[in-house]
Amino acid sequence: MSQDGACKLNGYPSENGGAMNTRPLLNRRLDGLGTTIFAEMSALATATGAINLGQGFPDTDGPESVREAAVRALRDGRGNQYPPGPGVPELRQAIADHQHRFYGLSLDPDTEVLVTAGATEAIAATMLALLEPGDEVIAFEPFYDSYAACVAMAGAKRVPLTLRAPSFRPDLDELRSKITPRTRLLLLNTPHNPTGMVLTPDEQSTIAALAVEHDLLVATDEVYEHLVFDGAAHVPIASLPGMRERTVSISSAGKTFSFTGWKVGWTTASPELTSAVRSAKQYLTYVSSGPFQYAVAEALRLPEAYYDGLRADLQAKRDLLSEGLEEAGFGVYRPRGTYFVTTDIRPLGADDGFAFCRSLPERAGVVAIPNAVFYDHREAGAPFVRFAFCKRTDVLEEAVSRLKRLG
Ligand code: PMP
Ligand code: GLN
Description:
Distance between the termini: 55 Å
Helix content: 25-40%
Number of strands: 13
Structural class: alpha/beta
Strand content: 5-15%
Order of helices and strands: HEHHEHEHEHEHEEHEHHHEEHEEHEH
Bound molecules: 4'-deoxy-4'-aminopyridoxal-5'-phosphate, glutamine
């Protein structure tokens, strides 16, 4: 504002002589994407003291040795100043070694790995780097909320491929029918938030063949890569024939090591794709999380027993919460991966997930997320509600006993 109080947005006085300019401040591309549901629901949990099974973050920190590694890095002055743009060499090497150890992929840590501020920045940089206005991006609906925002910020158009209950598997004939000459990129997410669907090797092969046939780029969000249950295995689509040169794989330390606040994520991709994503990334944060990068490098080298233990712990919690929710009267879609379970509230006589979640703290002292926010067609997601099970066992037991009072 100028000294006389006139509002001079856009460099000119507003027409009504100094009152607020009438043009909406939030640009149209972000229309409807105001505040994330995670912020809204975590604030509700704090305000009401309800158990927060909404936003996906663990209530117990990750391994002590990893936390200590961060302290050591801070004390030793490693990463306290801007780290290198692509990430510290120790972490890039550890990411490359992780991809080789778990998936047999060989990557050059200097040209094919990029460290980002969480998977969130990796998604944003990938979309901003690879998309032109008007390009179409096909993504599984329900989609993780930042996909819609990032595709919109790039000026591109999201084309939903709806995953339908009860299996939430993608209809790959429908996928084929949605590919047009404007389709530029397939945005995959497996294991899938919020449904817990995990793509099968056959589905991945079909998707890969479509990408090759139509010369599409693929971005694949694999932040839950280590949270796959019932003996199933995560297969990165980048490991399939013809995919390496067209795929940006995205992951993060947040979910695998239970340090969501550190915001250490990464992409792995061909040198050409990595270079493009890095161009966008350097103007977003430039760099982030200096000392934590060293700690995550150590975390990635944890023995098999750590990864197995994480998976077993969360599988047991999945079972505990899923069974509890069933007993409480919810329809439950038991997930194959992630740490979320999607439920159907219709057996409880409700059909509006938003209203249900807004009243749940008062009715039962629990917070959950209405899946409708992850849909373009909100009605399609209306009866579904997501609960997170990355919480202590006693917390989940208490949540279940409260939810049983609903019936
Ligand atoms: N993708 C998915 C599917 C997620 O659930 C999340 C939430 N962790 C993210 C990306 C963001 O990850 P990060 O916290 O590392 O930015
Ligand atoms: N990924 C987390 C979830 O799906 C939330 C992350 C966030 O708050 N942006 O719940």
